[in-house]
Amino acid sequence: MLWIFATLVAAAGQTARNAMQINLTASLGTLGATQVRFIYGFPFAILFLALVAAVTRAGVPGPTAAFVGYTSAGAVAQIFGTVLLLEAMRARAFSVATAFTKTEAVQVAVFGFVFLGETLTSARIAAIAIATCGVIIVAAKPGMDWSARSAKPVLFGVASGGLFALAAVAVRGGILALGDGAYFLRATTTLVWCLGIQAFLLAAWLLAFDRAALARSLAVWRQSLIAGFMGAFASQFWFLGFSLTAAANVRTLALVEVLFAQAVSRRVFGQRVSAREAAGMALVIAGVALLLFAP
Fold first, then answer.
1. What are the extents of the domains in the chain?
2. Could you write out the three-class secondary structure of the chain?
3. What is the dihedral of CA 26, 29, 30, 33, to 10 degrees?
4. In whole angstroms, what is the distance from residue 28 CA to residue 215 CA?
5. pLDDT of 61-105, one tens digit each?
């Protein structure tokens, strides 16, 4: 049951990182704020791996072709998922944007079945459905303007969730491709590779097409460093969760991030919770509780 602890820590860390990144978006732009998560997070991932290897006195597993393929796919999907998430957050309330990305729970169950052959019990499927309905209730406000302009951030949020779902399944595939070594060593090795690929791709892109954004992120290096650490910290625990159980289980429990996001919205951004949103969050809690106790 360690995956439960790992997922809860990851969800809390990710909420903090998202709040930091959305603040950086105003000064760095969407892509500039996106790269902070990866470029500044990569050194911390290397440090995590060094510590794990030193404590366990175990060798770092070598990459296989399947591992590189899965990890590369997950890294790219996560980059684009983060870009769309920040765009959605810039256009809508922080908590609402977060809620729409959480359709990921349903999508990751489908992708996990298609690509990894992971099946779920009927009780776990019901838990995913209940929690996702709660997310939709939180996000879809009565009388919402569904014109093309207004619906754009909603589409960004759902698409972001799909890309994060693909990334989660690909990361789990990469971890499994490393064999039967210690789960924490395989998870941390995958994290280093994933962040390394992402840091390289984004640094190359920014050097070629947007050096100003890269220079601005260096100018606010203190904020960027903290956001990078929180990103690597959250990812470390996501990857630990993926190494211990099916990606669908991890991402469904991760719906508690909606509750964390509501707390951030209220305390940091001054956004209050309505009765409808409270009812939706109750469904999220019910779905998560069912997941935890389901066979």
1. 2-293
2. CHHHHHHHHHHHHHHHHHHHHHHHHHHHHHHHHHHHHHHCCHHHHHHHHHHHHHHHCCCCCCCCHHHHHHHHHHHHHHHHHHHHHHHHHHHCCHHHHHHHHCCHHHHHHHHHHHHHCCCCCHHHHHHHHHHHHHHHHHHCCCCCCCCHHHHHHHHHHHHHHHHHHHHHHHHHHHHHHCCCCCHHHHHHHHHHHHHHHHHHHHHHHHHHHCHHHHHHHHHCHHHHHHHHHHHHHHHHHHHHHHHHCCHHHHHHHCCHHHHHHHHHHHHCCCCCCCHHHHHHHHHHHHHHHHHHHCC
3. -80
4. 9
5. 989 999 999 999 999 998 898 788 777 777 665 556 666 777 787
Closest C-alpha among 245, 258, 231 to residue 292: 245
Is the distance from CB of 194 to CB of 6 less than 8 angstroms?
A: no
Kindly give, in sequence order, each residue whose CB lies less than 8 Å from that of residue 228, ignoring residues fewer than 6 positions away: 36, 37, 38, 39, 40, 41, 42, 43, 44
- Residue 254 C-alpha from the chain's centroid: 9
Say what percent of the chain tops pLDDT 90: 31
Main-chain dihedrals φ then ψ at residue 200, nearest 5 degrees = -65, -50
Q: What global pTM score does this model have? A: 0.81
pLDDT tens digits for 107-137? 888 899 888 988 888 888 898 888 888 877 8
The residues, any chain, with a CB within 8 Å of residue 11's CB and separated by 6 or more, are: 234, 253, 254, 256, 257, 260
d(CA 239, CA 179): 15
Neighbours of 107 (CB within 10 A): 22
Q: Is the pLDDT of residue 282 over 80?
A: yes
At which residue do the structure tokens 């990182």 appear? 17
